[in-house]
Structure formats: structure tokens, C-alpha cells
Amino acid sequence: MANHKVTLLPANLTVEVPTGALVAEAIQSAGLEIGQPCGGQGRCGRCAVFVDGDGARRRSTIRLSTDDLEAGFALACQTVVEGDLTVTIPEQERVERRLVTDKTARSIEAPFPYDPDLQGIRAFRLYLAEPSLQDNKDDLARLETALAAAGYPGADVPLDLMRRIGSVLRECEWSPWVVLESQVWNRPRGPARLIDIQADPIEPVAVAIDIGTTTVSAYVVDLASGEVLGSAAEYNGQIQFGEDVISRIIYAGRNGGLSELGSRVRGTIAELLDRLHKRTGVDPAHIYKATIAGNTTMMHLLLGLPPATIRMAPYIPTVNLPAPVLAQQIELGIHPLASVDCLPGVASYVGSDITAGVLACGLSETEELTLFIDVGTNGEIVLGTRDWQVACACSAGPAFEGAGVVHGMRATQGAIEEVWVHTGTFEPTWRVVGGGTPRGICGSGLISLLAELFVTGVVDRGGNVKLDLDTPRVRQGEHGPEYVIAWAAETSTGKDIALTKVDIDNLLRAKAAIYAGFSVLATSVGVRLEDVQQVLVGGSFGKYINVEKAIQIGLLPDLPWDRFKFLGNTAVLGTYYALLSHHERERLQRIARSMTYLELSADNTFYDAFTAALFLPHTEIVRFPSVAGIWDREVGSAPARETG
Amino acid sequence: MANHKVTLLPANLTVEVPTGALVAEAIQSAGLEIGQPCGGQGRCGRCAVFVDGDGARRRSTIRLSTDDLEAGFALACQTVVEGDLTVTIPEQERVERRLVTDKTARSIEAPFPYDPDLQGIRAFRLYLAEPSLQDNKDDLARLETALAAAGYPGADVPLDLMRRIGSVLRECEWSPWVVLESQVWNRPRGPARLIDIQADPIEPVAVAIDIGTTTVSAYVVDLASGEVLGSAAEYNGQIQFGEDVISRIIYAGRNGGLSELGSRVRGTIAELLDRLHKRTGVDPAHIYKATIAGNTTMMHLLLGLPPATIRMAPYIPTVNLPAPVLAQQIELGIHPLASVDCLPGVASYVGSDITAGVLACGLSETEELTLFIDVGTNGEIVLGTRDWQVACACSAGPAFEGAGVVHGMRATQGAIEEVWVHTGTFEPTWRVVGGGTPRGICGSGLISLLAELFVTGVVDRGGNVKLDLDTPRVRQGEHGPEYVIAWAAETSTGKDIALTKVDIDNLLRAKAAIYAGFSVLATSVGVRLEDVQQVLVGGSFGKYINVEKAIQIGLLPDLPWDRFKFLGNTAVLGTYYALLSHHERERLQRIARSMTYLELSADNTFYDAFTAALFLPHTEIVRFPSVAGIWDREVGSAPARETG
After folding, report:
1. Contact residues, chain A, for B166 at CB < 8 Å
2. Whole-angstrom Cα distance, residue A643 to residue A32?
3. Does the distance separating the beta carbons of A131 and B314 come in below 8 Å?
4. Which of chain B's residues have a Cβ under 8 Å away from the Cβ of A348?
5. Section B64-75 average pLDDT
6. Which of A130, A144, A162, A340 should be substituted to probe chain B, the one whose Cβ sees the most B Cβ atoms within 10 Å?
7. Which helix (H) or strand (E) holds B287?
8. In what order do the strands lie in the sheet with A379-384?
9. Which residues in A lie closer than 8 A to residue B315 (C-beta atoms)?
10. What is the pLDDT of residues A130-179, one digit of tens each?
């Protein structure tokens, strides 16, 4: 058997290893370390290295994206040496970044050329004739004449501006700067509307906002170039009145509740704009257009519409396709006459965050059978192609946001966000948001942990913790059987962090609801899940979940890795597209109008599909061939050798 | 000489008098009394009686209108007995009423048939399909479908109503009453707008308002029939911040002044609507349309537009032709979504009270050369026919409102409103507003008094009081020469009420400004004042002035009595017409757009015309042949015999 030279960078050591050795083994034989939290099963992706030379055969590329592969990444534990090689061990930080951000690495840029004429806001200077005793036309008529000459006859001048034009026109010596809404996307032939008039030059800016139940995101957009000047996200200030939409709806029904919730989300937006003001210099008073997406409840709360009926059968919202309003009507802290375009939703539980997501992800323009998933506080699913779309919402509950789980928490500082459990020892390794000691487990951590416990045999297909394993980590706890992921001494709370049987049941119900959604949608249109050509995952939650582990617990359908794309916050991205172009806005309206909404609570097949999905990964294991394979290997046979 | 029987009713006495005796003499010979404050010169009209029989020859019918003559009125002092007669002496109250109200007796009725389709407001009931899990369209879409079926596709549903539709639709079991603005007069093809939605039936009402500098008037109008349900007038609550528009403009420039003035006039309107609510049962919350006229400054103050530039050359207002606003935008206390249509004016000093007046008086539809005068706090004049109109404003000042005159007051309780001075004794008789003892003299009283003093020779053509007359009423007072109209013992103030030389000079300037306006307007279009075929007098002031006396002082041009028509508040009347019909509203817009405004301060001939008019009645006495006649008779010759 031939030996091959493996040069290791940046240490610049060279070792010789026989054909068939793993790159991980070569690294270890040089006395170097490389993290393998999963025990060398190629599950965690933490041993990614750059490989240069033809002598490497990638046995598995799971956890590596096409971009990763193009960049030269390989998993040290899954790459066999078959010739001379140069292996660069990247800084751990770089691997982290790849894992966390690479799959969402999409520079904020629209996939179409920017045409300022399609966004509706114009700013320019006017030159008026000065009045005299002989030419004593009133100020407004004089302004209207100049606007007409500029191509905007019959422009509407709101009363608020009328109150100012007298002084502004004289201050600027009859040459004011004006900002005009030249047209509204849905009334292209309507008259223009004056938004502002000032003596000083104006550079108009717009804002795209996605109001999530948990997180509010905003992009500040330069209307001259269409570029995103800055983006920011913040927890929705309504959270203290309930984690999920149902709690918010209940709170809105209390005396003063609706107005309190409205004022909270306005406060959050104000905070975001203030932060962006400091960062980009854009004064919120110069924001002349806002385009906003959000789930239907969030939009109701923003607009001050009572959301009570959203919660009660037959689940009817006040409005799915709201008309634009003025910022001052909803007390949004931008220019009071700015037009606020609340994007169109489909139904009480499929809002404009989803339609904007569909626009952003390209589902509505593709011929491929596409599944779009946005798992935020709720799980919304769209299945379709450019010709048809069908959507449903799954009451996943907030388990994936860390609620309803004893040690659950949101993905903030101290949350365990990814877990690897060693196949032989059942000892865990984890990654904590922000580093440091853990405080609890967030959604992606829960998925990761459950998957690891399942594939390593700590829990069985019914979600039961196997108390007879030879490890102190499984035990009978206060809340029943549990697995201890961190001992008190390792945590910042000074208490053990564990996942209990009750937690597992909650997670099973959440994932079952979502998977049942996929099944029912597919059945309703007569396609099979395995025929889905791409799965596009949006939502802030989707940014962090590990698709492989999500498949292992049966949350996502078992499709080849390369069919999944993680798009990050597609809601705010689609909102940005709609802000930039009336064409995109019209497309969005068509999406909202044409999408078929399936009300799961009115669907007879949903309950059966849900029950079948309560197992790990599913009652019908044939639906998850890749998981069946791992599970057989890990649990059904002897542990694999601990190299890699 | 034959004797004739004169039967006097209601006393039922019969006397015999010779041919040629006056009816007044017959009454006196029966021992009955009839008031002749003017001393029997046929000037005061107070001795009006009903005459039945052919034996009466009316020597003069001055002070009697065509209606009066048709009703059988004759002046006892000017009617010669030439045959048997029956004379009915009416109750004094009836004569008073005739004098005060007859000339304005115009029942509030539009001179065109009412077509509800032309006023733009509709109320009706809708029947919506109830939602279900199978039909889960949102509330708004359901409402829009029903509105489209009713003939209003694409109707705009304001956010304020969106906030209510969920609960209203369920309360009324999907059959709500709606109020719709089906069209706006100037955008007939625009979409309809929902104004209200309720579970209970709605009977829509509108209001026509004239905001005068001194008085605010309102008509509440039933939109089903077009009928005026009630009318009311009240002093403008802004008065305490200045009697005239200039003072108001100055006050508006002070910190908080503009908003204070706006809030005052809204307060006055609220008070009027409250009074009308009590009287007619019309809740202001059910007023779905308001049409408002007023001078340009009043409209600026209502709309919250700074009026400063109105006062400074070149006298440019912010707006002459305001677009409709919503009641809530100006905090008008009617339905917040009601459309408020502020009628179009022409220039800083010719506002919509004048254009509405022109609409109401018919000037814009007649072939006759017509002079329209509205003497309120200012004097505005329009000369024209249906083919052309030219207008100007005269800074008459507030003298005719009782300001700038020592004992001047507004026409309220205790104001002397009409005066007769006896030709022989120079003793006055007066009529007081509300009866009782006098407190001061109002505008019509001042005109009346000055005219009487002039024709009886107490003042000369230069306005000087003749101190050498044999009466204690003329004297050198504190403010120079004066005429005492009421002794301290007769007044409610316990002080003499007098008209001083200074007062007279103020009145002369006021009347000269107005007459100069007539002259300049006529000259500017090349017509002569004597060619004017009708003089239409509007304004609350015009309601009470005695045209004959106004001619005598040279305030009105010397034209035959029957060419004058007193129309009362033409501003509110024209506003009412514009409210009732989009056709009238369009006509009003045409009037405002086509009227030529003459800025007197920019006219070289104005000062000369003004100076020439500072005499009584005018420097060129030939312009006032009728006055020259009286003046000759009264002053130039011996006093007439004191019968009558």
C-alpha cells in the first residue's frame, strides 16, 4: 500500500500516511488537533478543511454546500487520502462563520436592475414665478403650475403641506425642493401627491420592514440608487404581552390592549430607525416611503385593526390586502405624509411575510416544484411553481423558539444553538450563541439535540429517553426521564440543563404539525414530497437550523441536501423588492390573490398526518431513507470506529 | 269739494274727510294714533296701512316694496283720499316685521329641483354573505364585493372604518348600513369613499356654513329631501381677538395665535351645531358633508393656513381654490370622515362668501348689468353679467359694524338700528333692536342717523354738525361737535348717546371707500353706474340697512328703489346651493376662476374716487339727483308742513 505526503498548513508540517487513511487521521498523526464533536461521523461539519491536490476522495460531503465545495472545503473525517495533498486547517472562527452565515450569505441586492421610475418617489427642485400686484395668483396655484410644468398636473397637495407652502416658498425665494409620490403602484394613472416641500435639498429614502412576532427587521434604502444603506433587527417590543400571535390577539382584546400593542411595535420600529439613523445618517423624517410585511396578526396590530376574529373559527381577518395608508394615520415615526404600503397576505395565518417570502425566493417564477418554508413563531408552508401555489399554516407553537421547553430560550447570548452527541460516550459538545457558558437551549439547539439523541440511540423512535444506557446523562428527573446536556458547574445558571420527556413531546408535536402540513399540501395537489425539486427555507429561524438534523427528527422531508436552500429573512427581502419596483409589487399582489389557502383545521386528513408524524422521524420510516440508514448504522449496529 | 267716508279698522270708526286729505289726517281726525317718526315725509315707512277701495291715490310709495303694494300697503302720510275707503291700521309689530324682515323674506329654498344624485352622499343597506371555513374571504373583501354589487366597485374604505368593520359586520349579522361619498364634484369618475358603516339605519345630513368675520351662519340640510331642517347664526368666537380680518391676521402671527383662532371658530360652529341638534334632533355625528364659505382670511384660519401674506403687498393668499379635506383634518365637530368642501374664492380680499353670494344672487346667470354688494365687516363688490364679472374689495373698516364710533355697537339688544329726525324740531325717533332702552348705535342706525341729519340739515355736505341750530341736541362735546340722539335718562347706560364729528368722519371714509369701489369697477369696464340694472345686496348688514338712507349718504349709488334687492346672507345661501348640487358647485368654481379681481391699492384712480366720495352724498351732487331733490326740499327751502 502506497504512502502519500500530506502537507498541513498553516503549521507547515508534512506527514506520510497510507492510501485509505482519513485526512483527520493525517492531522492527528502530525500532533495537530481538529474538533470532531460528532465523533467523526461527518454529521457536524466542524472538521472542514481546505484540500489542495487530486489525491483526496470525499466519501461524504454532507454539511458542505456547493459553494463550500467550490471553495475547496472537505470534511477531514470523511475524506480519504489517495495521493499527495496539501491541507489547510482554517481558523476555527472561519469554520464557525461558514456554518452560521454561509448558508444565508446573500448580499442584500435585488435580482433585477433598479429603475427609480418604478418606485414612485421623486425629489426635485421647482422654479416658480414670483408674485406681484399684477400677478397675484395664490401660492398653491403657483406651485401647481410649476408641478404641472414638471409633468405632474393635478397633483394633490395635502393640507399639512398647504400650511407650510407660504413660508417655504418665500424662504427659498420661490425655488423649493419637493418630494412627490408620482404614482401609487395600484393606481398608475392617479394624480401625483406632494409629500414634502422644503427650502433645502432633499435626498429621499425609504424603509422596508418585516414585523415578525418575535423579531422586527428593517432595511433603509436610498431611493436614488436603490441600495440598502443599512439594516437592523430587534426583538418585537410586543413580546412581553405574549410569545405567539394567539397570546397577542388575546391581549389585544383587553381594554387598551390593541393600542398598547400598536404602540409597542411602533416603538420597536422607532428604535430600529434611530439605530440606523446613527449608523447611516438617515434621518427618519426623510423616509418618504415604507413597505411593510408581517403575518396577518402583526399587520392588524400595526394598523390598529382588532385581530379577535383571526383566532375564532372561521378565522376571518379584517383585511388581507390593505390599501396604502399615510404614516401619520398609524403614527409611524417617519415623514408623516409618507405612504405606508402594508403588503398583501392570503389568510389569517398566511400573511404578507409569506407572500413577500415567495416573491423573494423566486417560487412564483420557477417551473420547478418548490416547497417554501418559513418557520418562525409559526410554521407557514407554500408548495407550488410559477403556475400555482398552495399554502397552509401549521400551529407549530413556540417550541422552536424555546418556549414550552423547560430549559428553552430564544437564540440570544448563552443559548446552546448546536449540539453534537458522541456516539460511543453519549457526551455532548455544544456551540453557544455569543460563546461563553450556556444558559439554556434555543430552537436550533433543540432540533440539533433531539436529532443527536435519536441517531445515537439515547431516545427511541417514540421519543422516550432510554434510562438503561451506561451514562449519568440519562436519568429520572423532576419532570420524568431526561438527558442532561450541561452540568450545573458548566452553566451560567448554576443548574443542570436537561431535555425532558415532556420537552421532547412538545418538540414532536411541533415538528409533526409542520411535517403534516407538507403532507397535506402535497396530497391536496396530488404530488409526492419526494418530487419536490427545491426546498427554500426562509425566516430567521431557518437561518440557523441544521437541515440534516431537521431531517433526522422528521421536521423537514428527506430530500438530498442540495435541494435545500437557506435564504434567511425572505420576508424583509421580498418587502425590499416590492419597495424598489411597482412591477414586483404587482407581482406580489398577484401572488397573494392567486395563492390557494388550505385551512388545516378544516381538513379531514390533517389529524391523521399529524399523528403519523409524531414519531422519530415518522411512523412510516420509508419516508426517511437517509435517516433509516444512519439510524441503522448508529443504533442498529455497533458504533463506528472512532476516527475521523 | 266732496267729502269721502274713511272707515278705520280694527277700531271700526268712520270719519268724513274732504278730497285731497291724507289718510294720516283721516286717522288723526278719528282720534287714533299712527307713528310718523320722520314727520310725515314718507321717509320712514312706519305709517304703513292696508287700504281697500279705489279712492286712494299713492303720492309716493317709497319704502314700499312690490310685495308690499300687492299686499295692499300704502303710506298714510303719502296717500291722498279721493273716494270712499277702508283703512286697516296694522298692529305696530306687523309693521316692524315688514320693515325688518320683509326685504329678506326668502324662504330657504333652492331655485332648482333637488336631485339627490347630485350631492354625492348615499346611505343604504348592504347584504353580505356570511363567512365560513369554506368561504374565508376577509371582511374588507366581503364588504367590497357588496359595494361593487351596489354599483361602487373599488370604493375606498378608510383605515378608521377598517378598524370598525369587523365588529359592525358581526353585530348587524352581515347587513350593515353604509354611508358613501359616491363622488366628489371635481373628480366625478374617481372611486367612491366609505364614510360610515353602522348596524343601525342612518339618515345622512349635511351642513352649509358661512364663516363671517363677525357672524357664523349654518344651515342643517336633510340629504334625502334637500330641505333645510334648521338654521342658526352666532357671533364668530374669534371676535375677542380683533374685530376685523387685519387684527385676526396679526393675532394669527403670534405664538399659538393661529391655532387659537382655529379653535375659536370651530367652537362657534360646534355651538351652532349643538343648538341645531337640540332644535332639530340632528346629531352632528350624522353630518356627513360640510360646505363652507367665508372670506379668504376666515378660510385660512379654519384650515390652519397662516394668513400673514394676505395682509402684505402683493396680498397673496396660500390658496383660493382649496381641495376638499376631511372633517378630522380640521377637527370639525361633525362625522370625522365627512368631506369638508371649502368653497373657492378669488383673491385675498374676495373670498368664497362673495363667489357663493354671486351664485346665490344669480348675477352669473343674468344678462342684466348687475351690481352685487356684500357689506359685512369689509365691503366687497362685484359688477357684471353672466358673461363677465369684475370684483374688488373696499377696506370700509368696521365703522358699519359699530366699531370706531364712540357710541357704536354691533346690532345686538339695545342698539339703535333705525332713526328718524323730525324736520322741524330735529327731535329723533328711533327703533332699538329687541325694543327697550338704547345702549348705543349699530351700523344701520348710523347710516340712518347720518342720512337723517344730512337731509334735515343738522350736518352739512362736508359732514360738519351745524352748531347754530335751535336745538339742544347739537352741541360742542368732548370729542368736538356732536348731535345727541338719546339723553342719559333715556339710555340704559345712563349716559347721552351722541354722534360726533369724529364718528361722522369715520363713517364718511367707510362709505367713500365703498362708493369709490363702485366707481372704479364701473370705470374699469367702461360702464356707467346709472346703467346698472339691478343692485343686489347681500350680507347680514345689508339685511337691515335702509337703502334710501344709504343712498342719501352716498353709500349706495342713486338708482331707482326697485332696482335694489336685499337678499340677506347670500354667502350661506350660495353655500347651500353648492352643497345640494355638483352642478352648482361647478358653476361656483367657474365663477371663482373667471372673475377678474381689481386690486384697488394697485389702482391709480381709486384715491381720486375715494376723495370725491368723502362728501355727503358726493362731491358731484349730480350723481345723486334724488338726494339733491330731498336736500333742496328739506334744507334748501322751508320745512314741509307737518302732516303725513
Report:
1. 305-306, 308-309, 318
2. 14
3. yes
4. 136
5. 74
6. A162
7. strand B287-294
8. A564-568, A534-538, A370-375, A379-384, A389-394, A596-597
9. 133, 136
10. 999 889 999 999 999 999 999 999 999 999 999 999 999 999 999 999 99
> A502-552, pLDDT tens digit by residue?
999 999 999 999 999 999 999 999 999 999 999 998 876 666 678 888 999
With an 8 Å Cβ cutoff, are A138 and B320 in contact?
yes
What is the structure's pLDDT at A316? 96
* Tens-place pLDDT, residues B434-452: 888 999 998 889 999 999 9
Q: Could you tell me the strand order of the sheet in which B177-181 lies? A: B121-125, B177-181, B193-198
Residues of chain B with C-beta less than 8 angstroms from the C-beta of A170:
309
pLDDT digits over B247-296, tens only?
A: 999 999 999 999 999 999 999 999 999 999 999 999 999 999 999 999 99
DSSP-derived 3-state class of residue A467: coil
**Closest-CA residue in chain A for B325?**
A159
Using an 8 Å CB-CB cutoff, list chain B residues near A193.
none
Q: A133 and B314: CB-CB below 8 Å?
A: yes
What percentage of chain B carries pLDDT values higher than 90?
A: 65
Q: What is the rounded radius of gyration, in angstroms, for the C-alpha atoms of chain B?
A: 28
Element (H, E) at A450: helix A443-455
- Pick A133's closest partner by Cβ from B162, B166, B599: B599
Q: Given pLDDT bands bounded at 50, 70 and 90, which one contains residue A498?
A: very high
How many whole angstroms separate alpha carbon B108 and alpha carbon B372? 20
CB contact under 8 A, A309 and B166: yes
- pLDDT tens readout for residues A216-254: 999 999 999 999 999 999 989 999 898 889 999 999 999
Show which residues on chain A lie within 8 Å of chain B, measured between beta carbons.
Answer: 131-134, 136-141, 156-157, 159, 162-163, 165-167, 170, 303-306, 308-309, 313-323, 325, 329-330, 347-348, 597, 599, 601-602
This prediction's pTM: 0.82
Decide if pLDDT at A634 tops 80: no
Closest partner residue to A132 (CB to CB) among B135, B139, B314 is: B314
Listed as own residue / partner, the contacts of A312-315 with beta carbons closer than 8 Å and 24 or more positions apart are A313/A601, A313/B133, A314/A599, A314/A602, A314/B131, A314/B132, A314/B133, A314/B135, A314/B136, A315/A347, A315/A348, A315/A349, A315/A599, A315/A601, A315/B133, A315/B136
The neighbour count for residue A325, using CB atoms within 10 Å, is 21
Contact A314 B140 (CB under 8 A): no
Half-sphere exposure of A300 (CA within 13 A, CB side): 35
Q: CB-based contacts of B163: which residues, under 8 Å, 6+ apart?
A: A303, A304, A305, A306, A318
ipTM: 0.82
Contact assignment for B167 to A306 by CB distance below 8 Å: yes
A165 contacts in chain B (CB < 8 Å): 318
For the four alpha carbons of B462, B465, B466 and B468, in that order, the dihedral sign comes to: negative
Intra-chain end-to-end CA distance of chain B, in Å: 20
Q: Alpha-carbon distance B383 to B518, whole Å?
A: 8
What are the grid coordinates assigned to B439, written together?
345702549
Q: Which of A319, A332, A339, A346 to mutate to test the interface with B (most CBs of B within 10 A)?
A: A319
Name chain B contacts of A599, Cβ cutoff 8 Å. Answer: 133, 136
Q: Which three three-digit cell numbers place residue A393?
A: 399554516
pLDDT tens-digit readout, B368-427: 999 999 877 678 999 999 999 999 998 776 677 777 788 888 778 899 988 999 888 999
Q: Which helix (H) or strand (E) holds B161?
A: helix B159-171
Report residue B188's pLDDT band, with 50, 70 and 90 as the boundaries. confident
pLDDT of residue B67: 66
Contact between A316 and B156 using a beta-carbon 8 Å cutoff: no
Q: Is the peptide bond before B153 cis (omega within 30 degrees of 0)?
A: no
In sequence order, the 6+-apart residues with CB closer than 8 A to the CB of A91 are none
